[in-house]
Design a protein that fits this description.
Blueprint (H helix, E strand, L loop, with lengths): L1 H5 L1 H8 L21 E4 L12 H9 L4 E8 L5 E3 L11 H4 L13 H5 L19 H10 L3 E6 L8 H11 L5 H6 L1 E5 L2 H10 L4 E5 L7 H4 L5 E3 L7 H8 L10 E4 L5 H10 L3 E4 L2 H7 L2
Parallel strand pairs: 1-2, 1-9, 2-4, 4-5, 5-6, 6-7, 7-8, 8-9
Antiparallel strand pairs: 2-3
Length: about 290
């Protein structure tokens, strides 16, 4: 991390498998003593188009180890990395495929999505950036020696997406001991989706996106290692209540909060004792919490 941190200033200027079951402890190991773990939300999405390979690289240039992404399934069953369940906001789908409203991801094949420009909306320098498949995304994260917080998006829309996600992770070597122990977390807003991942691969670190009532937290601790809430919904008492419980691997539950993009709120939630902060501006949050 020290080598990457040393390059952060230059980066800001430039921007403006195996199935061995192991205890899931290290991928969510305690954050650095000098601050929460910083996760680049959809990559460093303040500086490059979200969920593209360019955003992964932007996070890498800033010295950020962890990147977050979103996965969905195409019409022909290929996992692609995109946030919205429709393609209009971050691609030129409406121009390339007129008359196919609402341009839902699930209604397009992987080959069709591969034709779309996912960068021009963000800036001319990113014209031609593509929506990556999960396989392409994993290759880039691996090349950069980064770590992945993977969100299964809208699982109710994609029956079986958990199994397919784990299949691709396994094929690409991300379910071996090193990745599972140090470099992978799978999360979702869907409790049943998180349960499915935990049931199919009990060694994988999982996170539930949301803010369950304190009284309900013990039931979540049976299948998830993390409670990952919006920063607007928590305080120090809530964070402490989560961390008081142990998850399915016998370790204290962790709290990674989202989406914090300014120094003041980053310092505030760090003061609550959160374990991690998910952010579009990972350099700002890192600098505010060290």
């Amino acid at each position: 991390m020290s080598v990457r941190t040393a390059t952060a200033s230059a980066a800001v200027a430039a921007l403006l498998g195996g199935c061995v079951l192991l205890p899931a402890t290290q991928a969510q190991a305690a954050g650095p003593k000098d601050g929460p773990v910083v996760f680049a939300h959809r990559g460093a999405s303040a500086y490059a188009p979200e969920n593209t390979l360019a955003a992964v690289d932007a996070a890498d240039r800033l010295g950020i180890d962890w990147v977050e992404n979103d996965v969905q399934l195409t019409k022909d069953g290929v996992l692609v990395v995109v946030h919205d369940t429709t393609l209009g906001r971050t691609t030129d789908a409406e121009q390339v495929f007129p008359g196919r409203a609402p341009w839902a991801v699930k209604d397009f094949t992987a080959a069709e999505i591969a034709r779309l420009d996912a960068g021009s909306w963000f800036g001319a320098r990113y014209a031609g950036a593509r929506v990556p498949t999960l396989t392409q995304y994993l290759h880039r994260v691996e090349r950069n020696r980064q770590k992945l917080l993977l969100e299964i998006k809208s699982p109710e829309t994609y029956p079986g997406i958990e199994r397919e996600t784990l299949r691709i992770l396994r094929e690409e070597g991300w379910l071996d001991r090193g990745h599972v122990t140090h470099r992978l977390i799978v999360q979702s807003f869907g409790a049943e989706s998180v349960k499915a991942v935990h049931a199919q691969r009990p060694d994988v670190v999982t996170g539930f996106l949301g803010t369950p009532a304190v009284a309900d937290l013990p039931s979540y601790a049976a299948f998830t290692d993390q409670i990952n809430p919006s920063h607007t919904t928590i305080g120090a008492d809530y964070v402490a209540a989560v961390q008081k419980l142990k998850g399915p691997h016998g370790k204290p539950l962790r709290v990674n909060t989202w989406t914090v993009n300014d120094a003041a709120n980053a310092a505030k939630v760090a003061g609550f004792g959160v374990d991690g902060i998910i952010t579009n501006t990972p350099d700002v949050v890192r600098d505010a919490t060290r």
